[in-house]
Design goal:
CATH architecture of the domain at 22-131 and 139-148 and 374-384: Beta Complex
Strand content: 5-15%
CATH topology of the domain at 22-131 and 139-148 and 374-384: Beta-clip-like
Mean pLDDT: 76
Bound molecules: zinc ion
Low-confidence stretches: 1-23, 68-83, 327-341, 353-385
Number of strands: 10
Distance between the termini: 29 Å
Structural class: alpha+beta
CATH superfamily of the domain at 22-131 and 139-148 and 374-384: SET domain
Radius of gyration: 20 Å
CATH class of the domain at 22-131 and 139-148 and 374-384: Mainly Beta
Largest sheet: 4 strands, antiparallel
Shape: globular
Number of helices: 15
Order of helices and strands: HHEEEEEEHEEEEHHHHHHHHHHHH
């Protein structure tokens, strides 16, 4: 399996660059906040963190300062060694999201990204882009970086797939990386509509095969499995967007959103795709239409999962900011490092200090270092085990 697949999500993890927002943090409990959680022994995993009460999406679970900063050859990354944080186990479809506020304290924030039941284990993702790849690629990434084999429900479900479907998921991801993405990038750069349409046709044909195979799979598993070929769905959305076809883009972005929400709720990708979809649907059906209202609701859910409960004005400003970013429309082309250009802007919105400055999005294109953050986290996790 080709681990060099660069789905756009990889370039948009903004954990290390997103937002000084001290005022916002302090209003929620400061940088030494521990929510309704406890450390416990989890069967088959050693220690982990459990919810002690019912938790809602967006609820703050942890806000901790790192104990030290590790300077690597390419960047400075945090080494977060706070006990509670480093005990959070990995899942390929986690229920919590973590990111760093590089305010004075460079605090690490962990929020619930879904409803979590009392006694349920809290999980985050240690993966970057491979989170959106099939089982073999995720195993390879986790094994080489962290030395364990994931046994989360998504991995176990994917283990049970027929060999034909498992191979199809792998082939789809490989084909996007080796063929669709580079051709899409060239087509976008040259404005070659024929090329864009041909790539879209081939990517859609690939997905048709996937959908046919998925009919034999339990409905509850389909969305997670579709997220394992996210890059193909995204390539179609990119082509639709580049071709200026709003109707097709609304459909393909809707599929991207479902896939992102299934396995990366509250992620940067989730909020960006939701914001872009809402914009396209608003343009297509009109502001205030039922479709636009539904798209806005999905957009609010994504933003709450990442940033917590915010007033409508801040949600609007964040959505405006996120829709100007360049992850969808990049098709794994190595660009679109959304976070670099907006860190301070997101922080300003959260802190209530400023508005959105369109046009700065993707200011740091090509700086793909942020996926180092989960690695730093994993090292901390290993030390505690
Ligand atoms: Zn897993």
């Amino acid at each position: 399996m080709n681990l060099n697949v660069r789905v756009s999500w990889q370039q948009t993890i903004t954990t290390a660059s997103e937002a000084p927002a001290d005022g916002f943090l302090l209003s929620e409990g400061g940088t030494h906040f521990i929510g309704p959680i406890k450390v416990s022994i989890i069967e088959g995993k050693g220690r982990g963190v459990l919810a002690t009460e019912a938790i809602s999406p967006g609820q703050l679970l942890l806000c901790v300062e790192p104990l030290g900063v590790v300077t690597g050859p390419e960047q400075t990354s945090l080494s977060v060694e706070q006990l509670q944080f480093s005990l959070l186990n990995h899942s390929c479809a986690p229920n919590a999201i973590n990111w760093v506020l590089p305010c004075a304290a460079r605090a690490m924030v962990v929020r619930a990204a879904r409803h979590i039941a009392p006694g349920e284990e809290l999980t985050i993702s240690y993966l970057g882009g491979p989170q959106l790849l099939p089982l073999d690629a995720r195993r390879e990434a986790l094994g080489s970086a962290f030395g364990f084999e994931c046994g989360c429900p998504r991995c176990r479900a994917e283990e049970e797939l027929s060999p034909g479907l498992a191979t199809l998921l792998q082939d789809t991801a490989s084909r996007v990386a080796q063929s669709f993405s580079p051709r899409l990038k060239r087509g976008m750069a040259s404005g070659d509509r024929q090329q864009l349409m041909e790539v879209r046709r081939q990517a859609a044909a690939m997905m048709t095969m996937v959908y046919q195979q998925l009919r034999r799979v339990q409905p509850s598993l389909r969305e997670q499995l579709l997220s394992s070929c996210y890059s193909c769905v995204e390539a179609i959305a990119d082509a639709d967007t580049a071709l200026g076809d709003d109707e097709a883009a609304a459909g393909s972005l809707g599929k991207c959103l479902k896939a992102a929400a299934a396995v990366t709720p509250g992620s940067d990708l989730h909020v960006i795709v939701a914001s872009k979809l809402e914009e396209v649907v608003g343009r297509l059906h009109g502001e205030g239409s039922l479709q636009q209202q539904q798209a806005w609701q999905a957009c609010v859910e994504a933003h709450v999962a990442r940033y917590g409960q915010l007033d409508q004005a801040r949600l609007r400003r964040l959505a405006e900011l996120n829709r100007t970013l360049t992850n969808v429309g990049g098709a794994g082309n190595g660009g679109g490092n959304a976070g670099r250009g907006r860190g301070g802007q997101v922080g300003a919105v959260l802190a209530g200090a400023g508005g959105v400055q369109p046009g700065r999005a993707g200011a740091g294109r090509g700086q793909a270092g942020q996926q180092q953050q989960p690695v730093a986290l994993g090292k901390a996790v290993r030390r505690w085990r």
